[in-house]
Amino acid sequence: MPAKPTRPDKPARTARLARPAMTTRPAGNAPDRRSLMRTAATLSATGLFLLAVIYFFSWARVVVIPFAVAVTIGLTLGPVAARLERHMPPAAAALVMLLALFLGVLGLFMLLAIPAQYWYGRLPDVQYALQDLLFSLKGPFETLKKIGKTVEEAREAVQGEANDTARPLDVSVERFSLVALVFTSVPVMIGQLIMFVGGFAFFLANRDRLRLGLVSLFRRSGHRMVVARIFRDIEHFLFRYLTAISVVNLGFGAATALVMYLLGMPSPQLWGALAALLNFIPYVGPAIVTFILAGVGLITFDPLLAALTPAALFICLNVIESQFVTPQVVGSSVTLNPFLVFLSLAFWAWLWGPIGAFLAVPLLIMAMVAATHLLVHSPRAGPATYGKPLAARANGWLFHRAVPPRA
C-alpha cells in the first residue's frame, strides 16, 4: 500500500500556530495613574461627606441630640419590647416602656433632689477646698500665689493714687438675670423633652417597619441580608453590653454608698448614685467622682488624711470594679478596644458635650457592628446561620477579644 503523501504546507501551519501571541504593553503607567486618581477622588469625596455630616451634627445639635438619645435607648430596649409585643400591640408596649422609664427617672429625681440641691449650694466651698489642697501640695504654685498677691496690692495702690487726682468714673455692672436664663433655656429643654418622648415612642413602636423599609431599598438579596443582620446585631450587642454595664454600675453605686455611709460622709445615697451614673462614662466619670469626693471630704473632715480617705477608698473600689468585676461580667458578651473607647469618648464629648460622653460607647458599638459587616470580609453565610449574632469576625482590630456566638 503506497504511503500517503504529506502536505507541503503543514509545517508552515504548525509553526504559525505555535507562534506566541503578541502582547501590547501599556504606554508608561497611565492605567496606574488613572486608578490612583480615582482612589484619591473617592477618598476626597468621602472625607468631604464626613466633614459635612460632622458639621451638621454640631449645627443641629439641639434637634439631633434628643433623637439620637431616643434611637439609642430604643435600640437597647428592642429585645424587651419584642417580648412585650407577644402579649400586646407594639404601640401599647412602647407606651408601657415609656411609662416605666418616666417612673424610674421620677423616682431617682425625688430621691436625690434634696441632697443634690444642698450640695449644689455648697459647690463653691468644695471648689475652694480643692484649690487650697492643690496649692498646699504644690510649692511653686504657692510662690506664684504670693507673687500674684504682691502684684495685686501694688496695682491697687497705684490705682488708689490715681483715683485721688483723676476724676472718678461711673462703672455700672449688669446683674445676672435668672429670669432671662429661665425664659431662654426652659423652652429649649421642653422642646427637647417632647422630641425625645415622641422619638422614643414612635421608634420603639415602628422599629420593625423601619427595618423592613430600609431593607427593601436594596435590590440584591445579599445586601438585604447584610442590612438586616446589622440591625439585629446592633440590638443584640447594645442590649447585652448595656445590661451588663448597668448591673455592674448599680452594684458599684451601692458599694460606694455603703462605704461613704460607714465613713460618716453626708448624703451617701447621692454619692452612690453619682458614682453609678458617671461610671457609664469610661475614664472621665470616675475621675470626676474622685475629685468631688476629695472636695467634700476636705470640707467635712478636719485632718487631711481623714479628708482624703473617701476619695482613696473610691479609687480602690473603682480599680476592683474595672479590673476584676467588669471583665468577668461584660467579657462574656463583648469587650471593647480601650483605644477606640477613648477616641470615641473624646470625639463625642467634643461634639455634643456631656450627652455625647454618655452616648460615646453605644455609638461606638453601632459603628463597630456596621463596620464589621461592611468592611471585614468573611465567608458568605447561608440562610441557616441567620438569627445568630455576629461572632469572631471582629476579633482584633474592632473588638478587644473574640465574641462567642450565642447558642
What does this structure look like?
The radius of gyration is 33 Å and the shape is globular. With 407 residues, the protein is an all-alpha fold. The model is unreliable at 166-178, 377-389 and 391-407 (pLDDT under 50). The chain has helices spanning 10-18, 30-59, 61-76, 78-84, 90-121, 123-137, 139-165, 178-205, 207-216, 221-263, 268-278, 284-300, 304-330, 338-352, 354-375. 76% of the residues lie in helices and 0% in strands.
Briefly say what this structure is.
The chain is mainly alpha-helical and 407 residues long.
Secondary structure layout plus pairing:
Blueprint: H1 10-18, H2 30-59, H3 61-76, H4 78-84, H5 90-121, H6 123-137, H7 139-165, H8 178-205, H9 207-216, H10 221-263, H11 268-278, H12 284-300, H13 304-330, H14 338-352, H15 354-375
Helix pairs in contact: 2-3, 3-8, 5-8, 6-7, 6-12, 9-10, 10-11, 10-13, 10-15, 11-12, 12-13, 14-15
What attributes characterize this protein structure?
single chain, mainly alpha, 15 helices, disordered C terminus
- The level of helicity is over 70%
Q: Main beta sheet: strand number and arrangement? A: none
**Strand element count:** 0
Shape: globular
Order of helices and strands: HHHHHHHHHHHHHHH
Task: Give the number of helices.
Answer: 15
Q: Which residues sit in consecutive blocks of at least 5 with pLDDT less than 50?
A: 166-178, 377-389, 391-407
Determine the strand fraction and express it as a percent band.
under 5%
Distance between the termini: 81 Å
User: What structural class is derived from the secondary structure elements?
Assistant: mainly alpha
Mean pLDDT: 78
What's the gyration radius in Å?
A: 33 Å
